[in-house]
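Re: iron/sulfur cluster structure - here you go.
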Amino acid sequence: MNKHDTALVRSALDKSGFTFTEQVEQADVVLINTCSVRQHAEQRVFSHLGHLKHIKKGRADMIVAVIGCMAQRLGDKLLEHEAVDLVCGPAQIPQIADLVAKVLQDGQKKLAVTENIRQTAHEEQDQALEKFESTYGIEDKQIPGQAFVRVMRGCNNFCSYCVVPYVRGPEVCRPPAAIIEQIRKLADTGVKQVTLLGQTVNSYKYKSGERTCCLADVLAMASDIDGIEWLKFVTSYPSQEFFDPILQVMAGSPKVCDYLHLPAQTGSDKILRAMNRNYTAGDYLGLLDRARATVPDIAIAGDFIVGFPGETEEDFQATVDLVKRARYKNCFIFKYSPRPDTSADKRLQDNIPADVKKRRNIELLAVQGKISGELSERFLGKQVRVLVEGLSKKPHLDLVESKGEPQLVGRTATDYIVVFNGPQSLAGQFAKVKIARTSPLTLFGELT
Ligand code: SF4
């Protein structure tokens, strides 16, 4: 979601005449797009700001803008930082070019965030975001041949540990016609894969007269667009609502990729209640069973938080059991860190020692690593189709004589990362790769 915002802001600034530099010392304007989901992410922003404060000593004319969730969360407190000239929340990004121009012109610090984000309706703001999204979304191509399209903003779930509802505001779903129009334009520019984005993307619904359009309908309409070959969507919330229609469209359309990111967060019903997640471990596993019954080759990824307040060894073992039963392709595992103003932070003591969180994190990663390794091995000797992203960032051992060709990275429809040697010109194209070696998170092969 943040990468998408960055692309929109970049596109808007580009259109208003700014040029980009990778050299921070050369910049007149530095923008930091921020995430508040974890404490660590916010700490990194402060460390960047410390560095920028230093640079600004020799560059008094440079301005620094902090945008995104941390800007909304901290508001004027962030503006007090010596290095910061502009604080702009996620809902104010349509004004970013004007705000930057004003600060450059008059040299005054500026704050642009939403007051009472949960209490009042913000219709004008929503309309501005819709216009911004559809105007600049066309440029949103961070990886050749791929694009993100946001279908909804905000969240109404209030998981007790999560800051998102307080910084992104209530759930607002975009009109299906605008989404489809945007995807059509992206297809016209050569985009082959579109990922639909939402905090709880599977709960997307848009009421128009008697009819309610859900995510399955959007996926079906998008599947009819020529040029779009793969459709993905992230992130799903484990609720019953609209779950089966989404699986059916996945099973029925070759374009809707057989991939589901479905965070469970914990396998303990007691901790799920404390997290204010509205399902039990049994409900969750029931959804996975239904997914696998409808889409047999579906790849499922999960998210977990370890060391949530009150998590006993027994609770943690319930998580280990769930991970073993779920057989995820991969999992994102995080150590709990309290986020200010969330209900978990207000009501629950962060009482799991750091070393216990660390041990549980390592143990769960090891359990998942074994499963991921077994699932990856099933690809040995098989040919997979990948959409090539570009050069591999990490160097890997070449499998075959590379013939001077660089290592490329691509992903399968089920989100497996595949590394192989090939011409860089393949970026943004589909390729077939025969898998010769596997690791838990990466498949290695040869272009066929
Ligand atoms: S569903 Fe829960 S974890 Fe996800 S964004 Fe909403 S409140 Fe946060």
